[in-house]
Amino acid sequence: MPTPIMGQPVATAFQLRNYLHQVNPSAPDYSSWYITIGRKYGVRGDIAFCQSILETNYWRFGGLVLPEQNNFAGIGAVGGTERGAVFPTPQAGIEAQIQHLYAYASSLPLPANTVQLDPRFTLVTRGVAPTWESLTGRWATGANYGEKILAIYNDLIATQGALNPPSQPSDNTGTTPATPTPPNTSVPVSQRFADVDPNAWYTPYVQRIVDLGVMRGESDNQFHPNDTATRAELAVALYNLYQSLNKPNQ
User: Where do the record's region annotations for Disordered lie (predicted)?
Assistant: First the structure.
């Protein structure tokens, strides 16, 4: 059954960033923007995130489009040497991507109090592609473009679905039961980081903290378990811990 572009997200921002960082631990975290901006337009931001994974090779780039363009969906990169559109900020680039999906999926005007950021919005035959599958041959000329996006999404759901436990209802005492610890279903850190000994005493703790998105590897794809941390790095880790504990369903 075809998958509509319009709709509410199923995957959470926590699941999106955990999936991305398993492959590219140094990738920037824009997951919350995909969810919130997608909701603003009624577009599946979780699947749009998977589209960007496909377009940017897990934010490693390597093609014509450069990271500094903030263009995570190849908008305007129509072939040859054309690098495509440039956006002033990552958030603007993501909103332009969502707008372009909205143009394909809907014939309605842009939502109230929004500014058109997608430079190719008016070039789209409005509503011509209401499903992800129907983007093939339209957004990109490659075979099975829409199916490739959905394959990434389905893999994300299959591997990350258990990492965000559902919200617990309040009990009769008026308190909310504690959220259970997410199960460990990710790739072992000893396979992701060459300098993590699978038999070391600290490995289970590193595994959990990486699964929760509190810490990640360095740009050399190593964890550096014996290095000292700066106060700035500690601040980042504590903030990530705060997000994972207090906002598990964003």
Answer: 162-190
Residue 170 has pLDDT above 50, yes or no: no
| Residue 18 lies in domain | 13-160
Domain boundary among 145, 160, 175: 160
Orientation angle between helical segments 145-160 and 13-23, nearest 10 degrees:
100
Residues 137 and 207 in one domain: no
168 in any annotated domain? no
- Residues 48, 74, 148, CA angle at the centre, nearest 5°? 50
Rounded distance, CA 88 to CA 18, Å? Answer: 26
Question: Which pLDDT tens digit goes with each residue over 47-59?
Answer: 999 999 999 999 9
Nearest of 178, 165, 155 to residue 212 by alpha carbon: 165
Q: Total domain count for the chain?
A: 2
Strand-pairing partners, residue 126, are none
* pTM summary value: 0.66
CA neighbours closer than 13 Å in the CB half-sphere of residue 164: 24
Residues 146 and 223 placed together within one structural domain of the fold: no
- Whether 173 maps to a domain, the answer reads no
> What 3-state DSSP class applies to 79?
strand
Residues 34, 136 contacting (CB under 8 angstroms): no
Q: pLDDT tens digit string along 179-202?
A: 334 434 457 777 778 888 877 777
CA dihedral 159, 160, 163, 169 (to 10 degrees): -120
Look up residue 232 and give its two tokens: 């700035």
How far apart, in Å, are the Cα atoms of 8 and each of 3, 12, 46, 48, 97? Answer: 12, 11, 9, 12, 16
Q: How many CA atoms lie within 13 A of 142 on its CB side?
A: 12
